[in-house]
Design goal:
Blueprint lengths: L4 E3 L2 E3 L6 E6 L4 E7 L3 H20 L2 H17 L1 H12 L3 H22 L7 E3 L4 E9 L2 E5 L5 H14 L3 E5 L6 H12 L7 E3 L4 H10 L5 E5 L2 H11 L5 E5 L4 E5 L5 H13 L9 E7 H16 L19 H16 L3 E4 L20 E4 L16 E7 L2 H8 L4 E2 L1 E5 L3 H10 L4 E4 L14 E2 L2 E2 L4 H7 L1 E9 L1
Parallel strand pairs: 7-8, 7-10, 8-9, 10-11, 12-13, 12-18, 13-16, 15-16, 18-19
Antiparallel strand pairs: 1-2, 3-4, 5-6, 6-22, 11-21, 14-15, 17-20
Helix pairs in contact: 1-7, 2-4, 3-4, 4-5, 9-10
The structure holds NADPH dihydro-nicotinamide-adenine-dinucleotide phosphate (NDP).
NADPH dihydro-nicotinamide-adenine-dinucleotide phosphate binds next to helix 7 and helix 8.
């Protein structure tokens, strides 16, 4: 299958006619190719977006919203095709793509299509003196770059708010998982989205991605990906004074107190550790357990982990699918080796899985892995692994838990398990994370702002924050 760029309403190859292969992680086989797009392709996409901007930004909000809602509907119409593509591209269980990724992508278009109708700006009455108000206007061409772990969900999380408030877009999905973005471009054509409003350039980060970031006439960049890539992007974008949102890596603590609802905690912790093969930026990878519960938790959690089926993503009872790419698979194996070198004990897992089935005999499967015996300072507990590997560390007091939770460069998310309401509030106010779940995980109202602290990012996405991010603000003061 040839995946094509979507530029000025048309599906076209790259200007240089260079291609990159794409692989199905579950089979290890090539399933298609994408254009290895260059600066010239980004320039074409920018020109289309630039030319489309005056008419798109001048549309009534209701008309723009109608397009977004139509795209949401068509994502639902094509949901099975999208779910199959997402699973084949990324290696995740098809059941997960059906349940989470694809519905959430249509939710993103539906949410921003309607939220933009209710955006308001501030006005202050200064009495006799006059009044002061704020105008929010679209900025122009937005550059959007997204990662491979939740390909369609995170891509649409940026595209929908940028379009909703009147920007036009040049976007690049990850080269590793381009398939759902390609189907989205076909959906946009079916929805009748005017040419040039939304453009997708496929290719690598250093080539196509960097050309977007460095383009002098793309004044706003929204990026989700690794912390070191975010730093490289900031180095280019900051001296150009671009508006920048960076959603970056994490090393999220999952803090379990003895007084928690044990059964609920255990079930949710299995999910928060290994859903999507541990490749969700919000997965908890450092499990801090209060000492009185440690032995029981370790036994039950290990049993629960062993019972998870690592299998063909197409089989309904598969809980853990394939790792997204050979490079990521090798990276995770490297960290398992490092855990042993650092003195850790592998309680379960730690090995590749070869015996999935005939179809998947060359896929990149790993056992979900539990490490113990490492303190919070070692590399395995400091660096983002982004795979099905968790480390369990005991703690004694609330202060210990807090110190350990905050002992990394990251601050994306945290989960807290306790029945003590006062402690929940006390800890939640002190944990250095952009989002803190108390007795739950991955539950969120889309209206709230989302983003990390420390090296997990700057800027906030989600809710009205995202709509405001994609506007420029004028402060207007009128003297009467
Ligand atoms: P990367 O940082 O490697 O890549 C993210 C995107 O940036 C890809 O599209 C990539 O292109 C592109 N890119 C790479 N280098 C450059 C560059 N120099 N200039 C411009 N673009 C570039 O991240 P991964 O794809 O490996 O995703 C995993 C990471 O994403 C993890 O660290 C995870 O924590 C983080 N993440 C954060 C989230 C959050 O909300 N904070 C949510 C989800 C993931 P290509 O891949 O095509 O080369």
């Amino acid at each position: 299958m040839n995946i094509l760029n979507y530029i000025n309403g048309e599906l076209i190859g790259g200007q240089e006619d260079e291609w990159l292969d794409n692989f199905n992680p579950a089979t290890g086989e090539k399933y298609g190719r994408i254009p290895d797009s260059s600066k010239e392709d980004v320039e074409l996409a920018w020109k289309a977006a630039h030319d489309a901007f005056p008419a798109w930004s001048a549309l009534k909000q209701e008309e723009r919203s109608r397009y977004l809602l139509r795209i949401a509907e068509l994502i639902e119409v094509h949901q099975e095709k999208l779910a199959l593509a997402e699973s084949a591209d990324n290696g995740k269980p098809l059941s997960l793509a059906r349940r989470m990724d694809i519905p959430r992508a249509s939710d993103n278009f539906r949410f921003y299509g309607t939220a933009a109708l209710h955006m308001h700006s501030e006005t202050y009455d200064m009495g006799e003196q006059g009044f002061n108000y704020v105008l929010n206007r679209p900025i122009g061409v937005a550059g959007l770059i997204s990662p491979w772990n939740l390909p369609l969900y995170l891509f649409t999380w940026k595209v929908a708010p940028a379009l909703a408030v009147g920007n036009t877009v040049v976007a690049k999905p990850s080269e590793v998982t381009p398939a759902t973005a390609f189907i989205l471009s076909q959906i946009c054509i079916e929805a009748g989205l005017p040419p040039g409003v939304f453009n997708i350039v496929h290719g690598t980060g250093p080539k196509a991605g960097q050309a977007i970031v460095a383009h002098p006439k793309i004044p706003v960049i929204s990026f989700t990906g690794g912390t070191s890539t975010g730093a490289a992007i900031a180095k280019i974008a900051a001296p150009m004074f671009k508006k920048l949102s960076l959603e970056l890596g994490g090393k999220n603590p999952n803090i379990i107190f003895e007084d928690c609802d044990y059964d609920q905690m255990l079930k949710t912790t299995l999910a928060s550790s290994f859903t999507n093969q541990g490749q969700i930026c919000l997965c908890g990878s450092r499990i801090l357990v209060q000492r009185g519960l440690y032995e029981k938790f370790l036994k039950d959690f290990t049993e629960g982990t062993r019972a998870m089926k690592v299998g063909d993503p197409l089989e309904a009872d598969t809980r853990v699918g394939a790792i997204v790419s050979r490079a990521q698979y090798e990276k995770v194996l490297h960290y398992i080796l490092l855990a042993k070198e650092e003195g850790g004990k592998i309680e379960t897992g730690g090995k590749p899985v070869y015996e999935v089935n005939e179809r998947c005999k060359n896929g990149w499967f790993l056992e979900p892995t539990i490490v113990t015996g490492l303190d919070e300072h070692c590399r395995v507990n400091q660096e983002e692994i982004f795979g099905p590997v968790v480390s369990i560390i005991p703690f004694d007091t609330e202060e210990d838990a807090l110190r350990m939770a905050n002992a990394t460069q990251y601050g994306l998310s945290a989960t807290l398990w306790t029945s003590n309401l006062k402690r929940a509030h006390r800890m939640a106010a002190k944990i250095e994370s952009g989002i803190i779940w108390v007795n739950c995980w991955l539950v969120r109202d889309l209206r709230t702002p989302f983003g990390g602290m420390k090296n997990s990012g700057v800027g906030r996405e989600g809710g009205f924050e995202a709509l405001k991010f994609f506007t420029e603000t004028r402060n207007i003061c009128i003297q009467l």
